[in-house]
UniProtKB/TrEMBL annotation:
Species the sequence originates in: Clostridium felsineum
The protein's Enzyme Commission number: 2.1.1.-
Pfam family name, one: Methyltransf_3
An example Gene Ontology molecular-function term: O-methyltransferase activity
Gene label: trmR_1
Name of this chain's protein: tRNA 5-hydroxyuridine methyltransferase
PANTHER family noted in UniProt: CAFFEOYL-COA O-METHYLTRANSFERASE 3-RELATED (PTHR10509:SF14), O-METHYLTRANSFERASE-RELATED (PTHR10509)
Keyword flag Metal-binding: yes
Amino acid sequence: MGKIMHDYISDYIRNLIPEHDGILKELEEYAKENHVPIVHKEMAKFLEFMMQMKRPKRILELGTAIGYSATLMALNSNANITTVDRSEEMIQIAKENIKKFGLENRIEVLNGECIDVIRSLNEQYDIIFIDAGKGHYEDFFNESLRILKDDGIIIADNVLFRGMVATDELLKRRKITIVKRMRKYLDMVSNREDLTTTVIPMSDGIAITTRRQNNE
Ligand SMILES: C[S@@+](CC[C@H](N)C(=O)[O-])C[C@H]1O[C@@H](n2cnc3c(N)ncnc32)[C@H](O)[C@@H]1O
């Protein structure tokens, strides 16, 4: 669990969120037993909220793993979802899960490096969810802008990375490159005049970015 908030606040927020049942619970248990990283409970609730608020038609997800967050977004929207992962093992498990839940006509799973897949896409997306390759968010983001609708949203998970992004006191030597790049990502999305970004210190840190609309 990321140390980005006082434990009593994290625990309180987490306990407010009802447990899932059915297929999401099944995937949560599989992920836990097999040590597969999936979005935290608070991030799952945040995505659920975004589905209701934005009513997306098309979503791109970077980082499929076993298909948990893609399934969660599909169950909470009418969107068609494209999800990308470079691990063939994960892709196979995700495809099996998605088929088992009858979501194969809503969720398309692509095998490849995120950056190559983003460059190959030409549809326009309402939401792009970045949850892969923590050291490469800036590249993913820059390539994603081309395929983001004018009023689209880019959601990035793990941007505070267990608190290390916010303070050197928590920084582990082997994570220095990722942390420096994540700080650069947050500086960029926070300071570009054509964008507006908010960083939420929940889960492992969430950054949401959209284009600034001209209000004249
Ligand atoms: C945190 S997991 C995704 C979890 C998923 N979003 C969920 O909550 O159910 C990150 C996944 O991204 C994949 N990945 C990491 N770097 C990648 C890259 N550069 N291109 C494609 N996939 C990548 C990993 O194989 C891993 O399965």
